[in-house]
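From the pipeline queue, job 12 of 40. The input is one protein chain; the requested action is below.

Action: predict structure.
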Amino acid sequence: MNKPYEPHLVSPWSRAENDHRALRDTLGAFATGVTVVTALDPDGRAIGLTVNSFNTVSLDPPLVLWSLSLDSPNVDAFRAASHFAVNVLAADQQVVSERFAQRNSDKFDDIDWRGGLGGAPLLPGCCAVLECRNEARHAGGDHLIFIGRVERFSRQEVAPLVFHGGRYRSLREL
């Protein structure tokens, strides 16, 4: 006879539709890297935001995805952009992550970025940068899911910035 799964629960079982805070905390148990996704808006201004919803879709063809809240003031600009860049932040770039997580600031002040494919801003000092053609978009609840075709990429051997349980973390070798 199969017994039901009973982990060592921090909190009782919850229904996702009833307790958004508990769901958010539970999703936070999944450690992620931290990225800044950038593009140019229709007027040619640099835009960007901190994203941890980045993930791989496929190697052949080379596709990645990330999602953006429909409430974001940048959703239409990212939808219209031909390209976007995924800047995978290094462990020493927490300040960059915090800056791009703010809604109302000039995020690119004092950052020596350069334009990549389609003009998408490429940030210095990152673990990796993926330059993507804006391939497809799909509705996903209160977010828009962007799928990008990776056209060019680079990486360097530095420790990544990690986010887990609502806090920035660092990796250690096991």
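Job complete. The radius of gyration is 18 Å.
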